[in-house]
Amino acid sequence: MPGSARLRDCEVLQKITSRQAEEKRLYGAICAAPAVTLLPWGLLKRKQTTCHPAFIDKISSFRAVKTNTQVSGELTTSRGPGTSFEFAICLVEQLFGEPVAREIGELLLMNPAGDDPRQEFNEVGWSLDRTPQVLIPIANGSEEIEVVTLIDILRRAKVNVVVASVEKSAQVLASSGTKIVADKLINATTDSIFDLIILPGGTAAAERLHKSKILKKLLKEQESAGRIFGAICSSPAILQKQGLIKDKKATAHPAVLDKLKDGVNDAQVVIDGKLITSQGLATAIQFALAIVSKLFGHPRARSVAEGLVYQYPRS
User: Fold this and answer.
1) Cα–Cα distance for residue pair 225/228, rounded to 1 Å
2) Cβ-contact 8, 40 below 8 angstroms
3) Any catalytic annotation for residue 146?
4) What is the pLDDT of residues 231-277, one digit of tens each?
5) Which of 49, 106, 199, 267 could serve as a FRET partner for 74 with CA atoms 20 to 30 Å apart?
6) How many CB atoms lie within 10 A of CB 303?
7) Helix (H, G, I), strand (E, B), or coil: what is residue 64?
8) Which one-letter DSSP state was computed for residue 3?
9) Where are the transmembrane segments (predicted)?
10) Residue 233 known to be catalytic
């Protein structure tokens, strides 16, 4: 919200979606949209439907269900950001079949290595007496899932996030063709001090981040000053190349894990002192929530997770 209400008020979209339903083609909605958008359009009639818990009471109790994702004929609905992977894979399966859905799920690390969501070594506190300042550098080829997930969750937790492009333009083209516009260019961050610098993944982007002299200088200063830094997916390999994770435990995407000196392969998120790393894509939510937990405590992380409709450990 209010995005779902704006979709509801778009007459062109209503006509397109209504025609889709009338012609028995697939259509769907997630989060608030089933109740706020599809329901007023009359597109939930005789359909079992799920949606975000905050809006489920708008749907007839006879038709409302609390599953993460619900398929009812041509309609597919889901509960929220925390169920979006499951929602997307469900749509892929309907469009292309189970083998393709399984393959995509594996690429996204839907079943990451190890059952342990988080391991911590050399535990130290991260709490601050001010609003945390976080830098997320991006480049052409960055994994948009990781970039957007990190920005979204940290901002929900009331962190001040600055997104900086290492390219000549503030706009980058992410790995799957999504255009992302940064807040500023990396050279505009040199006079700032960040409590945390996080590198998102993407093989091509990791190389571009590694070649940024400004980012290399910022990371070296971050490590020397004893401030927090981290990376996800293929980007922990950058930290390894730059000598920033000596004698530190870390994890990464399975494709680059063997490049780490002390790689951990049985945890989605690994924290070692002021270093935090994660496997990638489907572990991005767990990664971001682990950062929130370290900065603000577990209750804040759990509160953010509930808004996402994401199952987060109670302790």
Assistant:
1) 9
2) yes
3) yes
4) 999 999 999 999 999 889 999 999 999 999 889 988 999 999 999 99
5) 106
6) 14
7) strand
8) H
9) none
10) yes
